[in-house]
Specification:
It is a single chain. This protein is α/β, with parallel strands linked by helices and about 375 residues long. The chain has 16 helices and 5 strands. Strands 3-2-1-4-5 form a 5-stranded parallel beta sheet, with helices on both faces. Helix 11 crosses helix 14 and helix 12 packs antiparallel against helix 13. The radius of gyration is 21 Å and the shape is globular. The chain starts with about 30 loop residues before the first helix and ends with a helix.
Amino acid sequence: MKREVVTCVKCLMDSTDPDIHFNSGGICNYCLEAEETLPKYRYTDEQIGANIGRLLQHIKANRKGKYDCLIGISGGVDSSYVAHLAYKWKLTPLVVHFDNGWNSELAVSNINKILDKTGFDLQTYVIDWEEFKDLQRSFIKASVVDIEMLTDHAIVASMYRLAKENNIKCILSGTNYATEHGLPSAWVWQKVDLKNIQHIHKLFGRQPLKTFPTIGIYKSFLYKILHKLDFLEPLNIINYKKLEAMEVLEKEYGWRYYGGKHYESWFTKFYQAYILPQKFNIDKRKSHLSALIRNEEITLEQAREELAKPLYTVEDLTQEKEFILKKLEFTPEEFEEIMQAAPKRHDEYETSIHLRKKLSSLKEKFNF
């Protein structure tokens, strides 16, 4: 018997998320949590000025070489806006772009426009495509939900290494609570779970990994403790609003929107708009749009109208699916068989998630 889907009365989140729960008024746990937490990320003009002052003082005090800080840029809203803030604050960052073989032309154009105006130095990390393809194929065949953890893992590993090589102590991240909160834990996995990546690849891969950037849990802790590397989140110290940021980027840089969160990557678009909804019954727009409702950027009605739009047009899906499968060397029949296979949890494979929890607990207890 098909279960009735229950939807929050204030946002788009519903009971297709296995961990959601509602209060007696029909409000979901994500809205209730945001009611308590979002006010902590809203500031007066004086507070914003003080926040920025402390951030810049910290960055300047920790400058050891040519650059103040490291910024990873994808061409998307958040990372582009961080680069804009660094320019506005007269910082001297090294900007890093991670090319995993799936960049859209629009993403590359956006990055170039930001760099043309700011004059920031760019270093592009181009991943070994054959290795990365083998990893993505392995994760798709493993039927786990967070295929994008491969890119996120490699970005983090590359950023740590580049920071160390350039004697940079501060990394500016586009991570922010205001527009990214409320993502169900069942939809993602720990990005630094190297053991999980290695085991899935061992089971489903077909070639050894020689250059894929990796960072295990111990190594990530050592970077933070021994090399005193700080991840700073400038979007969390201002009243960050995504739609306003997009207007600024469009006006000052000629930056262009690409139609969805992280759709600057061809694979991410296909993953979020086809694989997740078709195989895992997950529509990430529910979480992304709900965050914007809570951040008072759009109304519930506007969000519902956006959610009602198709994830793909028939024509675009046909063209992009053919492109993706050809690039990943899946036949349509082979891919369809995988799509029909039952989803599996990441912890059905080997994982270091329990070790990470223990180390995080020790870090919190001893404040190191």
